[in-house]
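Before relying on records like the one below, remember that each one covers exactly one chain. Contacts with other chains, cofactors or solvent are not represented anywhere in the record.
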Amino acid sequence: MQPAAAAAPGSAEPVALLMSTLAAQRLGPVLQQACGPAGCRLLLAEEQPAGSACGAQLAFVSRDITGRSTKHRLEPATAHFHALLRQAPGLRWVHAHSAGADRPVYQALLARGVRITTSSGANAQVVAQTALAGVLALARGLPALAAAQRERRWSPPPLQALPADLSGQQAVVLGWGPIGQALARYLTMLDLRVTVVRRHAGEPAAGLPTAGLDDLPALLPHTDWLLLACPLTEHTRGLVSAPMLRRLRPGARLVNVARGEVLDEPALVAALREGRLAGAYLDVFAQEPLPVDSPLWHLPQVLLTPHCAGFSSGNEARVDGLFLHNLKAWHQGAPLRNEVTGPPIPTPAGDIP
């Protein structure tokens, strides 16, 4: 099938914009203002027939479309929208409510030459605050205290095993996007010593010691907190492997608000069971939802949340603002914020297409 003719940026022709009914109702006339004189012709996802070609040229994947879907298990509304994207030969640009674009559908669109923008930064403060809550909960032994509360046991920590002061502990923040930057500020505020790990060492990040990915093994023996806040890329998939975990200082703790595929989960379970790691807070997993038979559910020193570290009532307005900015920029032929660059990430066999 030959791609349908699509209006180019700056064209006087209206473009066909695919979105949900809820998003269209919420944004209302602001949409047309962002489109400028050319205007937009709305295609409501719920009204588009399944299994046939879609005429969308632009698309907005809002939070209500994703719903409770994960990368590995799609709800019907999400699957339908993804199918429409794949069946739109004239598609030129998609804006996603998420901070990342590692879902297989976005990677497939990138391979086709479709431009993808994300909402990176919209929930960065919220994710960083949740990660900080995980740090504080683990540092103060709250999982054990919560278990004692459920059992109605008065169980203060033993005097020979009091929680260590956070002040002066060494934290390594892997990733220097909006989440990593916010998290580093919070940790510094609590007087932790923070080192930032980026793909390349480059310039110091906000005056903090900065290292490259190749330097990570040398940092781990001196690390009390390893905090993962990086995107999933060909360089970060499987980065925190069994050998990496073995290099961590005994009694270290790990926080993952990045992607589950960055971390070797079986190796993490082994390190926790053997007592080499003192605890972990995990919001993301290699398989989502986390399988009911995963040992992570039952480890007492582990805190789990269902990939909701970034959920907040204020995110919707921030995502809408990014989308509308980019929609206006598209029609003006201006640069788009948060555009995904670089080659598509290889998708492992078995991922949902």
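Residues 315-332 form the longest helix (18 residues).
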